[in-house]
Structure formats: structure tokens, C-alpha cells
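Forwarding the complex inputs:
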Amino acid sequence: MMSKSTMLSGLGFALTATTALAGDPVTYQLDWLPGGDKAPIYVCVDQGFCADAGLDVTIASGRGSSDAISRLAAGSSDIGSADIGALMAAKAQEGVAVTAVMSVFNKGPHAFYTVKDSGFDSVADVKGKTVATSPFTSSNVYLPLVLEDVGLTEADFELTKADAGALGPMLMTGQVDGIVAWMTDLSRYTGQGRDAGKEIIALPWSAAGLELYSASLVANDAFLAERPDVAKRFVAAFKKSVEFCQTNPEDAAQSVVNMVPELAKDDVLGSLNDTLGLIFNEVTEADGLGVFEPGRLAATWTRVSQAQGLDEAAQVPESFVTRDFQPGGEG
Amino acid sequence: MSLSMPDFSQPESTKGKRPDLRRILAAPGVAAILTILGTVALWELAARTLNIPSYLLPAPSSIFSTFPSIGAERWAGHVWATLRVALLGFGLAIAIAIPLAIALVRSPALNRTLYPLLVIVQSTPVVAIAPIIIVVLGAGDAPRIVITTLICFFPMVVSTATGLAATPPELIELSRSLRAPGFREITQIRLPFAVPYIFSALKISVTLAVIGAVVAEFCASDAGVGYFIQFSTSMFKLPQAWAGLFVLAAMSLALFQAVSWAQKLLFPWSLPRKR
Amino acid sequence: MEIPAAIRFDRLGQVFETGSGRVEALRNVSFEVARHEFLAVLGPSGCGKSTLLRMIAGLLEPTSGAVEVFGRRVTGPREDIGIVFQKPTLLPWATIEDNVVFPVRHKRGRVGSHDRDRAQELLRMVGLEGFGKRLPDELSGGMQQRVGIARALHMDPDILLMDEPFSALDALTREEMGFDLLRIFGERPKTVVFITHSVSEAALLADRVLVMTGRPGSVLTELPVPVARPRGRETIKDPAVTELAAHLRDLLLQRDAA
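Prediction (whole assembly, three chains):
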């Protein structure tokens, strides 16, 4: 099983050809490249939760939430992960036939990373600093909101764009005072900082009041309508995998490495641990795992519509999600 | 990174009396290999003595140590994924470019109407429309092949058309005076005369095909050397990304050489004569 | 019934429309070439000599007047005409033999053993026996031009058009080629129109020399060569030939000075 999945993902093009598992075929769309923050879907396949649910899952990597949503909308993938803010914007603007079925991150992963004791110790300190961000991250959308919350505008600091891979080195070499990156990369950046003799800290925007749902499980509407049973089984298996990641992070990281040997286990584990805080926290304790709590969902839409300049009243927040496919859901 | 260009001025024959150092150095490839080895050694030395952080410029030793840790099977998978797309895209480009060039040379009307269109297509950055192509053509190799083809077909059209038009006019008059069928003017005169032009375009295009495949992998893929580099960069595994770059460079060089060999083997007369 | 001339130009005129305006290349050109006659055409550069050949071959339509070949007006390319160009323009990828049979392959798509036998015979005739399997760039310029002549003769045309065929060769080779032509056409007579810049070449080879004026090209005069055939190496020293050459040179120099 393990060696088979190893080989299959290595010969990525052959993935679609596999019929060995003979379950219901499901194509899972990542919103980025494989990594520890994407551990649940690898756990689902490698630990056999997907197969136990009668599912034969193929994983396709993506290049950002918008890319993932367009591929889900085009039907080349069935279900996958994407930022619910990006989904809300895409539905409001383009009416894409994709709907969120389960929340995964109930906090935004967005953060500033800075060097400790450099005078950039809170989000408000960004005033007068130079900050780098990557061109396509969804964080850019929320940046004006978090600035507004601390009484600043984009005119109060200098923002430069650079490739995601260049952000770390730019921070380490002092070319910029801070970078915009996700909390899921905390251990990677701190590790990189250690190598460079710098102590890196993260300033999560949620700490500045940006409370919203983020990465979610989203699905093609036709998939949900035509194969509701498969969708339900998938959501249940996925949820089980998320819980497995929390209880057995070591094994979860191993599952990722089994399927993607290009990754080092320590890196995966670090990223997974950084990610778990966005999935399991006080919000999860109050509402439960995977839940879209109507109030927080509405608040998320308020934030997204503000950030994107959309008409908030034109959409009902509930129209972005369906709760019918979660275990114990209606329908 | 030092990628030495293939030596075009290489003396083809080294007929001499006794082997000496100068002749060994002049042998095909030796100078190139020595240059590469020297650069790598200098690089390693610099990385160690100057203490350059690995996220800026990893030492060659740390780059090469990533090769075994990935494993031959994985490498083969990535190389094959990129090679397959590059070669299919390259093949499709040839299949489109040569008939198109023939049409352009045969028909002045097409030349006036189609050529500007081709220039517009060429000046559109494929990188910018690649995501659209991927959404339209969906998963699988098809969008990547199309992107590769778009990137590498234009030099072939231009060069082939130039070659077809550069045929000695006397032979075209001979063909006309014989009242031979028009297609034979293409197959027996123009195309063979265009062979040197076509091959110089093929050499450029085959390396463009690798670039095209990588661009496509940056936009969408789950395998391939370009994907591997992007993936490694996003994981901050810079030495691993560099290893991927080396593999890409080696692939480009190998394909370039393969085209040169194909020309030598199939059309020896089309090469500049050694005297 | 009168036997028609092999080639007849009747008040022919040619005007080219170029990017920079109209260029009158030929004006009121009339002359005849008899069957098996060797006509040399002399004239300053740009007097439209090559244009004359293209009209005989049917590759170019005259603006006014007409060209007749064997009594029939030329309206398109005809097969009974062979052309030898200024440069040999052989196919570099094909062997010498394949180059000689090329017109057959190009016209019919295939080559029979009879065609190859004929190529061998022609190569023997032009002094290239045993070179059939070589490639063109293994041969000297003079040898390549002999291949060009063999190629032009392969379909056994009635008329052979030669457009300054030796102008790219060195003086000695050029003389040799002239004697070879005399021998070849001694063996099998052809109607030849031979364009040249060389007065001595014209006087040595031709039955008649047509001298043309500069642009627009027209016929200045026609002079017979008063030397009997067969001719050979000694012909070049024949007073009649040297005298004619001197006269031709004077004619051309006068034109240039005018």
C-alpha cells in the first residue's frame, strides 16, 4: 500500500490511471503544493481512511486558492481545499458552482514575520517599515483590513512583492523589516532564521482582531448533487483524518513523507504542528470541528466583502456553505 | 551557475601525429567539462570560505547530496514527466511549424494575413495565458503540451520559412521550366534546402521546449522537474531546488546534443564542410 | 512551306514594375535563331540578356511583342528546353548522378535504369566518368558546371539556354570548358543561346554573335563568325576569330563610352 502510493505519486501522471483500489474515484484538489499543512488528505489515503470509506482518491496540487476553485468549478477535480474568502469572492463575482462543505481553519493563517527585537513587535509597528509579500497570497486581500483595525493605511509603510521562496532570505538578509506569510510556515521560518543566526517571530493577524474562517473543504456542486453519498463518505473520512493529525502528528507527518518523499519529515511535522493551532483552538472547543457557525460565517463574509469591495447585502452568507454533508448533517 | 555553451567552433577532426596536452584539451567536450568542474570547485570553495548561507547560494556538495536522498525512481519520474511534455510539445510544434512555413512561402496572401497574426501570438507572453490554457484544457498533459508548443513553435516557423525562401532561384526556375508538380518543388528542392535553417531552429526550440514544459509545470502539475523546483523552493529546500536546476540544464544540453546528432546522422551534407 | 526558325523574337518589349518605378528592360527586340545554330549574346550588364533567356524558356511573359519557338508562340514553360545557369546550383545532398537525373525525378517522380544509363553516358561526355557517386562539394567549380551541363542535356532538349555558364570560373578553366563545349556540340548539335561577357568566348563558340545595347536592351548588331567547324584549340589563334573579337570589343567599348 505504502510503496504503491509512493510510486504512484512519483509518477504523478499515472495517478488517474489507477484502478487498483477499485473504490469510488474522487479527485482531491490542493490549493497549493504538498506539505505538512495539507497532511489530512495524505493521512486519509496513506492510513487507509479513504479506502475504508470506499474511496479511491487522487491528489492534484494547485497554485493558490483561486486556481483550486477554478479547477473545481471546471470539474477537473471534485473536492478540495481553498480559502473560503476566495470562494466567497468567486461566488459573488463569477457565481462559480463550488460550495464549502466543512471548515478546516477557523482562524486566518495570515501573519507578519519579523526579526525579534527589531522594533516590529506588533501589527501596529508596521508603520514606516518595509514589508515583502508574495503576489498571489490571499493574505494581500486582508492586509487593508488588518491595517484599518490598527488605524493605518497602505500609505503608512512600504510594501514590495516577491516570489514566495524569496521572502525568507529577504527577511534574513535585512532587505525588508517584515514579510507577509502564513502561520503554517512558522517552524520553517524560525528554522531558517536559526540557520542565519536570527530569531524570527510571527505576529498573527488574528491577534489584531481578524477573526474569520479560512481554509475550508470545498466541492464542485455537480459532484455534491450527483454523488452525495460519495461526498458524505469523503467528508467523514477527511474529518477522521484531521482528528488523526491532532492525535498522531508523527504518524501523520510520516504519511505525507510516504507519499511525497521529496519532503523531509521534520519539516512536515513542524508545519503540521503550526497548522494544528489554526484547526484546533478555542473556537473549535466552542463550536466543534468542521462547523460553520453562522455568526462567524457572517463575520467572515463582512470582512471579505469589505476587503474585496463587494456588496455585502447582495449575498446571504449561508449561500456559500452547505452543512448537508457533514456527519450527522441534515439530508 | 556555469553552463558552458556547446563549442560550435570545435575542430571536427584532430588528425595529428602525437597526443599532447593541447590536443587533449582541444578534444570535443573536454574544455567544456573542465570549465564546469573548475566552476563547481571554485563555487564550493567560495561557499565554504565565505560562509554563504545555503538559502542564498548552497554549496555544490550540499546540492549533490540531495540527489541520492530523492532517489533514482523519483528523479526518473520527474525527468520523464518533463521530458515527455517537452518532446510532445516539440513534436507538435514541428508538425505545425513546417506545414505552416510551407503555406506561408507558397501563398503570398497567407503570408500577408497570417504572418502578422503569428507575430501577435508570439509577442503574447505565454506565461500570462498559461493559467487560462490550463483551465480550458483541464488536467492531464494536454495543456502543458500546448503551452510548450506555443513557446517553441515560432522560431521554427520563421526559420523554416526563411530556409524555404532561400532556395537558389535557378532551381525554382528549373522546376518551373520542367512543369513539375508544385508539391515536388517543396519536397525535392525547397525543404531539403531549408534543412540547415530548420535544424538551427530545432536546436533553439528544443531548449525552449524544456523551458515551456517548466513554465507549464509552474502553473499546474504534480510531477516534473519544474514542479520539483517550485515545490522545493516553496519548502525552502534551496539545495534541492538547485539540484533540479542542474537536472534541467543537463536535459536541455542533452536535447540540444541529440538534435545536433540527428542532423549529423540524417543530413550530413547540411553541415558546414570540414576542410 | 518555309521551315520555321528554332527561336524567333518579334518586336519584343519588356517593362518591369519595380518598387522604385517602371524599368524598361528590353525594347523592340527582333532576331531569329536557326535550328542547330549557336548564337552568342553579348552586351553590357543589365541589358536584359538573362531576360531574353527567361522568355524563351517561357518563365516570363513579354510586355509586348512575342517569342516563337519552332513556329509556336511561347505561352508557358516548355519541356524541350534545357537551361544551364551562371552558377551550377546542384543539389548539395544528391550525388552527381542523382543531380544529372534530377530533372526526370522532379518531373515524373521516379527514375528508371535507362535514365541512369543516360546520366552515365552524359557524365562520360562532359569528362566526369567515375564521379557519379560523389557529392557536389567534392568537385571543383568547373566540374560542377559540367554536371550542370549534363543535367541540362539529360532530357535531350532541342534548345539549350546558357546564361553566362563560365563566368564564375577562373580563366584557364573557362577556356577548357569552351573547348569541351565545342566537342560536345560537335557530337550532338543543339540550338544554343549562349549569354556571355567574353568577346573571345563568343567568337570561339558561336556561329553568330548578337550584340545588345545598354538599358533598355535592344539589338545593336548581328555578326556572323566566319570560321568553319569543327573548331578546336587552334581556332582561338585564327585571324578571323581574333579580328572579330577585336571588333566586338570595340563595339562594346563604344557603347560603354557613349
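Chain C has seven helices and ten strands.
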